[in-house]
Specification:
Order of helices and strands: EEHEEEEHEHEEHEEHEHEH
Helix content: 25-40%
Number of strands: 13
Radius of gyration: 20 Å
CATH class of the largest domain: Alpha Beta
CATH superfamily of the largest domain: SPOUT methyltransferase, trefoil knot domain
Distance between the termini: 20 Å
Largest sheet: 8 strands, parallel
CATH architecture of the largest domain: 3-Layer(aba) Sandwich
CATH topology of the largest domain: Alpha/beta knot
Length: 243
């Protein structure tokens, strides 16, 4: 119900059902007790990514931790649309931006890919998951997008499921109008964004020769990788997603 949206919302890694006890992480207890000044018997909202959203009452709160008792169901679970974001990691703060904003925009899976020009190949998936959880808590998502381990582009394409089409943001300008492609799209899809500096000619050739790839243009300007990712995902959601 709408009035519940004002309640604090937390992700918990615990099965949820009426009467269940939930142990809070120390950071969550600190946030509730010290930052928000919550106390025992106050109500919060919780979700775990697959059991929907529930109301829960604070049963214990201290500096070292706390606990909740699950009370009432609020919303049934539903998954985001089946859209993957395949992207080359960039600088830490820009990669964090991609995780945060793409989670807000409803991506279902992140697939980091290492290309010939990827400058920042290392990716802390635990930190990425924390960024995703925070974004999901703030934006009313009931599910959490998956984060795959980084994989080299050739290896990824070698094992690609041809039933999932790839929309390739071609910075070289040879792609079709993105809206023309998206308006006639259906089925599982992945959005592919390259690194700063773009794909090599060999990488482009391989992609363009795959039957499951559609190259699209994002306009006359060269966009940063994070801008391109969010722009393409926004267009996809408008044409094919849950908007």
């Amino acid at each position: 119900m709408r009035e519940n949206y004002t309640l604090t919302r937390l992700y918990v890694d615990t099965p949820l059902n009426a009467g269940a006890a939930v142990t809070l992480e120390p950071a969550q207890a600190h946030y509730l007790g010290t930052v928000l000044r919550k106390s025992v018997s106050d109500t919060v909202r919780i979700f775990n990514g697959h059991d929907g959203e529930w109301a829960a009452e604070i049963s214990m709160l201290s500096k070292r931790g706390g606990s909740l008792i699950v009370t009432d169901p609020l919303r049934r679970h539903h998954d985001a649309p089946d859209i993957w974001l395949v992207f080359a990691p960039v600088r830490k703060h820009r990669t964090a931006f991609i995780f945060e904003k793409a989670t807000e925009l409803g991506v279902s899976k992140f697939v980091p890919v290492i290309t010939a020009r990827t400058q920042f190949a290392k990716l802390n998936t635990d930190k990425a998951r924390a960024q995703i959880i925070e974004a999901a808590e703030q934006t009313e998502r009931l599910d959490l997008p998956e984060v795959a381990k980084p994989k080299k582009l050739d290896s990824l394409l070698d094992n690609w499921d041809k039933g999932r089409r790839i929309i390739f943001a071609d910075e070289a300008g040879g792609g079709h109008s993105v809206l023309d492609i998206l308006r006639n799209y259906s089925g599982p899809c992945a959005l592919l964004i390259g690194p700063e500096g773009g794909f090599t000619e060999a990488e482009r050739d391989r992609l363009l020769n795959m039957d499951c790839v559609d190259a699209v243009s994002l306009g006359p300007r060269i966009l940063r990788a994070d801008t391109a990712a969010i722009s393409l995902l926004t267009l996809w959601q408008s044409a094919q997603g849950d908007w």
